[in-house]
């Protein structure tokens, strides 16, 4: 909506209805300031809805994303609270979904913890989300089989081990799988 002095405000229909706006309506400075505040709050809420509908996200991550997208920090915090009040944000559920995704991808527990940290999941939800983390030996073995063809050498093995470390697996886990596959583990340092 464009105002007489050239100010342009992007307004959602709800804000227009709430303020009873129509062409030719004159607003006082106070009314205009209230309209700007309401428009910002509605913008933050609608952006929060779009972000949450696209992916699972924690409260902290959503707030930071809204701020990075240009929303006022106070209004971003209010939008997150509004979403939480409607039970659209659940950090505990999001933590479980992140961990399940890491398990499906064959990541080690260290990578799962890194993902929880990156998604700003509060630490209080980590233990319950990680408590049933399965043994990843099969994933490690499958990864090694895809990386080590019939003519592999020490360099190929080092690269495969480095790849597994980046995927969050510990040296101990990798060593055990290599021993089970009857591959040389001398390349690996002691834990």
Task: Kindly report how far apart the N and C termini lie.
Answer: 64 Å
Strand content: under 5%
Mean pLDDT rating: 86
Structural class based on helices, strands and sheet pairing: mainly alpha
Main pleated sheet: none
Oligomer: single chain
**What radius of gyration results from the CA coordinates?**
25 Å
Unreliable residue runs: none
What is the number of helical segments per DSSP (H or I, 4+ residues)? 10
- What is the H-and-E element order? HHHHHHHHHH
**Shape field:** elongated
- How many domains comprise the coordinates? 3
Helix residue percentage: 55-70%
Count the strands?
Answer: 0
Question: Can you describe this structure?
Answer:
By secondary structure, the protein is an all-alpha fold. The chain folds into three domains: 73 residues, no CATH class; 40 residues; 44 residues. It is built from ten helices and no strands. Helix 2 crosses helix 4. The mean pLDDT is 86.
Per-chain topology:
Elements: H1 13-19, H2 29-54, H3 59-68, H4 73-85, H5 91-104, H6 109-118, H7 126-130, H8 137-147, H9 154-166, H10 171-180
Helix pairs in contact: 2-4, 3-4, 5-6, 8-9, 8-10
Describe what is shown at a glance.
The chain is mainly α and 191 residues long.
Q: Which keywords apply here?
A:
mainly alpha, 3 domains, 191 residues, 10 helices
């Amino acid at each position: 909506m464009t105002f007489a002095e050239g100010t342009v405000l992007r307004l959602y229909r709800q804000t227009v209805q709430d303020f009873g706006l129509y062409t030719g309506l004159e607003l006082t400075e106070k009314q205009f300031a209230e309209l700007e505040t309401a428009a910002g709050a509605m913008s933050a809420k609608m952006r929060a809805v779009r972000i949450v509908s696209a992916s699972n996200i924690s409260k902290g991550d959503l707030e930071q994303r809204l701020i990075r997208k240009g929303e006022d920090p106070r209004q971003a915090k209010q939008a997150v609270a509004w979403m939480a009040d409607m039970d659209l944000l659940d950090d505990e559920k999001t933590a479980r979904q992140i961990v399940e995704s890491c398990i499906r991808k064959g990541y080690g527990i260290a990578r799962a913890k890194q993902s929880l940290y990156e998604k700003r999941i509060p630490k209080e939800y980590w233990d319950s989300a990680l408590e049933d983390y399965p043994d990843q030996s099969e994933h490690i073995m499958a990864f090694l089989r895809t990386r080590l063809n019939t003519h592999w050498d020490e360099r190929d093995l080092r690269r495969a081990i480095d790849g597994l470390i980046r995927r969050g697996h510990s040296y101990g886990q990798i060593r055990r799988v290599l021993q089970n596959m009857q591959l040389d583990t001398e390349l690996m340092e002691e834990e």
